[in-house]
């Protein structure tokens, strides 16, 4: 570089010397002519200087080229004037942001070290924003007009290597970690997707390692997974059904989380009343159709019910109901601690009732004992959770339509509109000073249904029972509109811990929880009301939860009804405010 600089200086000095020499010669001739024409002097014509064709032709002066700044390469100079920077290859960071970042380096002379600092500042900006294999380089280039080009390399994942999977397809895992090829790698986004994958019930454990690829700006992600057992069975025994059809029932539930290897779920349930008043079953199949977890689902449900409670058991009241549904759900927001999902469902529901084997329609029960509903449901589900609390909200707009042989021209019929809103809040009281109270939690719940007119029995809102207002019978009130609200406090009792050998493995297994609650419910019709029938019921009570392992769960609640309801002839445990359930999971 020093030889090049000396050569440039020598050329400039030589050019300068020639120009001075030529200007001196011209200046001498002009001075001689100026002296002969001084004021007051009359020159004789014969002695006047004249240039004729016979005069010798002067040698023409050489033509000098236009003087302009010579293009320079960065490698040939120790410093250079930089007017501005231009950028190539940037996608996630705009050119305007990059220019503002290097504003202090523009319109000034920069050394090689300062250019390096400018480049490093851009690289650090990418790293600070978690683009860990992205950065900037300044290639050697010819610099004209003070413009320097900086090349941005936004790093990507070139490959995702998966090991340990046996049933889950490799592509299922890869698509949930890299949704679009060529998108710059962001560490926060990658960690978030790994957390979502860890929350997936398909996996017991996930280990990830990020390493460099073969080329500049490329990364390789190595994933090792341990799959969970995809199938489960559960047995439930409870008294969560109406005593009129037999409160005591058993239930067998089974599901498989990964039928084809693409995360599709098959669910089946069969319930049987021990008093032979009710048997029902349902099937559901969920299929994710893309890596955004857009899910297509089909649902089938059937139930047969018979009144077994005196004195109505003598007239042989029976009902049969079927439900078919096709739904599509789409997550709009899916993060480890929050989610928002929209759903659209087309549902076909029908029921038949009979008395003494003859079709019979109860009030608001359809035509000749038959009811057919066609419903479009638009739902929105929101979930937000943290270390100490969980908030869940659901909204469903339900539109009854005249389609698929629906019951119409009746009051009520299949043409209706209802809105169902549900809200749940769970909070651990870790802010309290007492260690025992810090482990306690509060549960709050509100459900509300509002109809624009009277609806058929399949769409009515039920109030009363273990999941609505404890201390009352299941389905104590069934109306067009309804509201339930519940507040519960659960307190763990570690000094009463009772563990089961070979089953209790976690430290919290076997610790009972004492619960105290207050419930409220209200139900009303849009049109006719039953005379002297209460609209409101409410209760207070106690409960006990005991889970000796993750596979066994028991709960027992006693509710005291604060509003008296006429007792039926055939009493049940529910009339004494007792609700219980035993669940066994395999």
Automatic annotation (TrEMBL):
UniProt main location, coarse: membrane
Domain POTRA: 80-155
Superkingdom in the source lineage: Bacteria
Similarity field: Belongs to the TPS (TC 1.B.20) family.
PROSITE patterns assigned: POTRA
The protein, known as: Hemolysin activation/secretion protein
Alphabetical list of InterPro entries matching this protein: Hemolysn_activator_HlyB_C, Polypept-transport_assoc_ShlB, POTRA, TPS_OM_transporter
UniProt keyword terms in alphabetical order: Cell outer membrane, Membrane, Protein transport, Transmembrane, Transmembrane beta strand, Transport
GO biological process: protein secretion by the type V secretion system
Cellular location(s): Cell outer membrane
Molecular-function annotations in GO: protein transmembrane transporter activity
Renumbered residue ranges of the record's region Disordered: 36-63
Organism whose genome encodes this protein: Thioploca ingrica
Pfam families found in the cross-reference section: POTRA_2 (PF08479), ShlB (PF03865)
An example Gene Ontology CC term for this record: type V protein secretion system complex
